[in-house]
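Hey, resending since the last one bounced:
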Amino acid sequence: MTRTTAVVTGAGQGFGLALTTALSARGDTVVACARNGPRLRDATAGLPGVLALPGDVTDAGFRTELVEAAGGRLDLLVHNAGELGPSPLPRLADYPLDALRGVLETTILAPLALTRLALPLLRAAGGTVVTLSSDAAVEAYAGWGGYGSAKAGLDQLTAVLGVEEDRIRAYAFDPGDMRTAMHQRAFPGEDISDRPEAGTVVPALLRLLDERPASGRYRAADLLTASGT
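The structure tokens again:
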């Protein structure tokens, strides 16, 4: 199996950490980033091949540092870092516009800017870009207008990237509901223990990466069902 060099954003907890752990176990090199430095370092300590690089993907200087940390080769770029917005989730009529700007900055603009920096390395390696999607990008849920519209925009950017860049793959990956801190913030005070752990979803993305179908939007549920998991 070919070993890869990957950059995973939002890797300090949840799905990003579960993916980083799985890639490390496969022998891959991972540049893992998150805003909370101590949590990132503690979470990734002892994972072979993982470089913990604390920082904010909305910062241009840090984005450059991330790409440089890949060391001249980049096979996989995973945009997992995201911003939910206010909690409890407000209706659009009450949504603070400054908060929405923050959601859009983290969810759409930062991934686009980082991808553009990384494209030369990704093209050279015939690499893959993965953006984390959500069913809120394609379904209308009350309270999810800010987050959902940002994810819908990211889906479209990913789709166009897949059309424009014939030397790479671009996947919008919808993991479904997971038992994560962000999901808990979306449902404050509610019991979300019925949601699956993030680690149970990782095999779906690994299958996508290994099989490398055409660029597009893929759901973890479909990939897991097809694999019999």
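The two ends are 21 Å apart (CA to CA).

Sorry for the duplicate.
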